[in-house]
Specification:
Blueprint: E1 4-5, H1 7-14, H2 18-26, E2 33-36, E3 39-43, H3 44-51, E4 96-99, E5 102-105, H4 109-124, H5 144-164, H6 169-192, H7 196-215, H8 219-233, H9 236-240, H10 248-251, H11 258-281, H12 284-307, H13 311-324, H14 327-330, H15 338-403, H16 406-413, H17 418-431, E6 435-442, E7 447-451, H18 465-473, E8 477-478, E9 482-484, E10 487-500, E11 506-515, H19 516-526, E12 534-538, E13 544-546, E14 572-577, E15 583-590, E16 598-604, H20 605-611, H21 614-636, H22 653-677
Antiparallel strand pairs: 1-3, 2-3, 4-5, 6-7, 6-11, 8-10, 9-10, 10-11, 12-13, 12-16, 14-15, 15-16
Length: 678
């Protein structure tokens, strides 16, 4: 009587799970006899067929299940070396993997990387990014939505064709070429805007896509080629375009000259590339170690870009680093059934869904932080407006009160009152902190007293506008911004009040020079240096009279600057690009006084978001959760040895025979016991 085996016994001998054996029975890949509900017996000849290929030249029994591997006489044993991209006789990897129970398509690691990375990059373009800003891409705004949609659609299309079947090769090629063109146009935009790091990152991917398409390079090889090529070219930005290199601070963490570190980086990456290639072809352990080191570097680089709010680059590089963690175990995965492909779809699909959620969280976070900062800026501009109005009003009141003081009127009328006049000017100066100088001028324009004392730019002020205006109108007047002849950069505003004697005759003018520099410093104390806030005040003509950058004083603001709206009585908050091209929040209001000024407080959005440390916290959390997800999926999947057509795994046939005899003897003993019992 021919021996038969249970499903559990066959699973142990073949090295598969019992669920896999039941599936093979259901699909009639294994012939068995049903002996009850859900129970099968597999005959000896069927087990021999599974153990031996046609002609008896190849036997498959994984040694990891306790079955020794011994060579069969006359057959040469070849152990695998290097990385097996099943099957792989050269670096080129076909679409299918052979196994004794059928053929299952192998997912492409490079396709999944490109697909997930493209989707995340396209969605990240909806976020505020220090790199992706309308100001930088102003001339390319019409094509940016098309690039964004193509990246998202092409990424989803590439993944779907890999999930459904490679039989849809036409659609696979369509989506492949769509992404090639999307990255080509995006690289062109980055090139025209001087964004050389983006050119290296995405230009290298475009070239790798073309290279893998025309050469048929395998998924692991294509992925490794892109990662090594991108890392080798990135430091060249520091050497050839240092002004646009945001990684310069990252490289400068090493206490050596930046250019030297960049060149050293290039050399080391070149050596690492050679080692990875040797490991790929000769020793998979070397390949694993090389890719693990690359993964660590990519994660650190991703955190650097996140701190600079370059979300597209940060998330794209982080995905590259996380998928590098799959490389050491990819070769160990067995794709013997559709459920094995489903593992890859589930793992990578979960990663993609996770990053989509992360982008949504970042969007909400940025919106909340920006809204909170907007409310704070509105409050600060209101406080700054009150400070200006109260300073101007108190200065006018102080000068008007001094001009009507009888002691000052008598002192101007006397010829020997220099000391009294000096005492009055000193008292006025010390009582008004926003004043740079107080001067008493006679009706004929001569300076009677001034404090602090300086050498006057002119000997007679009878023709000065503020003297004429004060004496003719007999009320306190305020001038526009004045520039002193001896100090063209020292701008000031004069507030003058007429001195009238008992005969109702104007006998002089008390003039106070408002110190705009001091006033600007007071305003800046309201602003927060942490978020880069600063105040701007302009006059009716749009010229800056208060600004943190003194070189900007006297110049007119752009017609599109939101502060211009305040010159017509407007108030509110808006976004604007400053003179340095930085995207900025602007809260503006008009100053209700004779000055007809407009005030605004501005803050770069980048510094607002960076000050919250939300970017660092978010990206750090994403890294931890990504590694957790990858580890969870890999631990939940039972790894098996991938065997290709170039590898012959041989077992001891006699051992199988002894097992069969032992099982047959046990079956006979049980049968005899039943007969004796009956």
């Amino acid at each position: 009587m021919a021996a038969t085996y249970t499903v559990k016994q066959v699973a142990k001998i073949l090295g598969y799970s019992t669920n896999s054996i039941y599936t093979f029975l259901k699909e009639k890949r294994i012939k068995g006899v049903r002996v009850g509900k859900g129970r099968f017996r597999i005959p000896q000849n069927e087990l021999d067929r599974l153990l031996l290929t046609a002609g008896g030249t190849k036997v498959l029994t994984p040694s990891s299940y306790g079955l020794p591997i011994q060579p069969v006489p006359g057959v040469t044993q070849a152990l695998p070396s290097g990385v097996v991209e099943a099957p792989r006789n050269t670096i080129v990897a076909p679409n299918y993997i052979s196994n004794p129970l059928g053929k299952i398509e192998v997912p492409s690691l490079f396709d999944w990387f490109v697909g997930i990375g493209s989707i995340v990059l396209g969605l990240a373009m909806f976020l505020f990014s220090r790199v992706y800003e309308e100001f930088s891409f102003e001339q390319f705004l019409p094509i940016m939505p098309a690039i964004r949609v193509t990246l998202i659609a092409g990424g989803f299309g590439l993944l779907l064709t890999d999930i459904v079947s490679r039989k849809l090769s036409m659609w696979h090629k369509v989506f492949h070429w769509a992404l090639v063109f999307a990255y080509a146009f995006y690289t062109f935009v980055l090139l025209r805007t001087g964004n050389w790091e983006g050119v290296v990152l995405f230009g290298t991917l475009m070239v790798t896509l073309l290279f893998t398409f025309f050469t048929g390079i395998g998924g692991l090889a294509g992925f490794a080629i892109y990662v090594v090529g991108f890392l080798a070219l990135l430091p060249t930005v520091v050497v050839f375009a240092p002004d646009s290199a945001t990684i310069a601070p990252f490289i400068s963490m090493v206490p050596l000259p930046t250019v030297f570190v960049a060149y050293t980086w290039i050399v080391l990456v070149g050596i690492a590339a050679f080692v990875i290639w040797i490991g790929y072809m000769r020793d998979r352990r070397v390949f694993w170690i090389g890719m693990l080191g690359v993964s660590i570097l990519l994660v650190i680089l991703s955190m650097h870009y996140a701190n600079n709010l370059a979300w597209g680059r940060s998330l794209f590089i982080l995905i590259t680093g996380i998928l590098s963690l799959f490389v050491p175990v990819w070769q160990s995965l067995t794709f013997a059934h559709k459920r094995d492909r489903a593992f890859i779809f589930g793992a990578f699909g979960t990663l993609l869904l996770f990053y989509i959620i992360v982008i949504g969280v970042l969007r909400v976070m940025q919106t909340n932080v920006t809204d909170y900062a907007s409310r704070e800026l509105v409050n600060k501009v209101s406080y700054g407006k009150s400070l200006l109005e109260s300073t101007i009003a108190s200065t006018k009141t102080s000068l008007s009160s001094a001009a009507t003081n009888s002691l000052l009127v008598d002192a101007i009328g006397r010829k020997d009152s220099d000391d009294d006049l000096l005492a009055v000017t000193k008292a006025l100066f010390e009582g008004m902190t926003a004043m740079r100088r107080v001067t008493i001028i006679s009706s004929d324009g001569e300076v009677l007293a001034t404090y602090p004392h300086i050498v006057a730019d002119a000997s007679n002020f009878s023709q000065s506008d503020y003297v004429i205006a004060a004496t003719t109108t007999r009320r306190t007047v305020m001038t526009d911004v004045l520039e002193g002849p001896s100090d063209a950069k020292r701008r000031s505003i004069v507030i003058a009040s007429p001195v009238v004697n008992s005969n109702n005759t104007v006998i002089g003018v008390v003039a106070g020079i408002l110190d705009l520099e001091t006033l600007g410093n007071k305003l800046q104390q309201i602003a927060s240096a942490t978020t880069g806030e600063y105040f701007v005040v302009i006059d009716q003509s749009g010229k800056r009279i208060i600004h943190k950058d003194t070189s900007q004083l006297g110049g007119a603001v752009d017609e599109r600057d939101p502060i211009r709206k305040a010159t017509t009585g407007g108030r509110g908050i808006d976004q604007w690009y400053g003179v340095d091209g930085v995207r900025t929040l602007v809260a503006y209001d008009s100053v209700n006084s004779d000055a007809n000024w407009s005030i605004a407080v501005k803050a770069p959005i980048v510094q607002i978001l960076q000050a919250t440390n939300a970017a660092t916290i978010t990206i750090f959390s994403v890294i931890i959760l990504s590694i957790f997800i990858v580890g969870l999926f890999l631990l939940s999947h039972r790894t098996k040895v991938v065997v290709d057509d170039s590898v012959t795994m041989l077992s001891d046939v006699s051992h199988g025979t002894r097992v069969a005899k032992a099982l047959e003897t046990r079956a006979k003993r049980k049968q005899k016991n039943r007969e004796d019992t009956s």
